[in-house]
């Protein structure tokens, strides 16, 4: 009990004092996660909207595939990215393995299907409601997608936050492709796993508290976005 209390006190001291190593790990985690989520939104939102609006052969299979890919096993993604970026892989010449860029790639692959699938559902619901109206206005496909994406902005914010929550908690894929190298690719989740296995609980607890705070913040933001959406919808 005393060891646990001591570790918890040390963890709080790390957070309050702004320990450089501690802040470096948190900063790298947020940088990698935010970059992956941004890329996922840039790719996934237009793709999801296109799947909601367009009609073409194979569309149904793509919708099923994206829904299924929402549950991609992180370690499998990590393994595939590792094989692609290793020296013998097709992208080995880029030298990205065991770098933050490799971690961004892995997280982007995990998050993009989530963003795309949630966007498709949100835009499809709106398209069913506004399709005839937009056709009457003579809107082409690009204009339709743009209009629906704007109208679904609150739902899209929720999709982005869901992607952020998935990426920020990821450990398997980023450990495989990042290598958990100190001061290079060591992020919050991999550090917690490493320090816990070593029995060094103070740093693990401190990072766990920050990760939990981030998770709570994301959930609060989702609730806030939904509340705002309901207010706008009733206005």
Automatic annotation (TrEMBL):
Example GO BP: transmembrane transport
SUPFAM superfamilies xrefs: MetI-like (SSF161098)
Subcellular location: Cell membrane
Record bears the keyword Transferase: no
Keyword Hydrolase carried by entry: no
InterPro entries assigned: ABC_perm_TupB-like (IPR049783), MetI-like (IPR000515), MetI-like_sf (IPR035906)
UniProt entry keywords in alphabetical sequence: Membrane, Transmembrane, Transmembrane helix, Transport
GO CC aspect terms: plasma membrane
Domain annotation ABC transmembrane type-1: ranges: 26-222
Name of the protein: Tungstate transport system permease protein
Organism: Rubrimonas cliftonensis
């Amino acid at each position: 009990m005393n060891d646990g209390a001591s570790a918890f006190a040390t963890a709080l001291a790390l957070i309050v004092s702004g320990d450089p190593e501690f802040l470096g790990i948190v900063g790298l985690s947020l940088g990698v996660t935010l970059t992956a989520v941004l890329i996922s939104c840039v790719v996934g939102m237009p793709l999801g909207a296109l799947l909601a609006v367009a009609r073409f052969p194979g569309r149904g299979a793509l919708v099923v595939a994206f829904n299924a890919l929402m549950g991609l096993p992180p370690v499998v993604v990590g393994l595939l990215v590792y094989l692609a970026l290793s020296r013998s892989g097709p992208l080995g010449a880029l030298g990205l393995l065991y770098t933050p860029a490799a971690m961004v790639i892995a997280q982007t692959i995990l998050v993009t299907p989530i963003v795309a699938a949630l966007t498709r559902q949100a835009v499809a619901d709106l398209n069913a409601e506004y399709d005839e109206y937009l056709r009457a206005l003579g809107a082409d496909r690009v204009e339709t997608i743009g209009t629906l994406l704007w109208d679904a902005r609150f739902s899209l914010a929720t999709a982005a936050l869901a992607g952020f929550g998935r990426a920020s908690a990821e450990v398997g894929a980023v450990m495989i492709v990042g290598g958990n190298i100190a001061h290079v690719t060591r992020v919050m989740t991999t550090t917690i796993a490493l320090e816990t296995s070593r029995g060094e609980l103070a740093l693990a607890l401190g990072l766990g508290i920050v990760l939990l705070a981030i998770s709570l913040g994301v959930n609060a933001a989702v609730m806030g976005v939904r509340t705002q959406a309901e207010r706008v919808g009733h206005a």
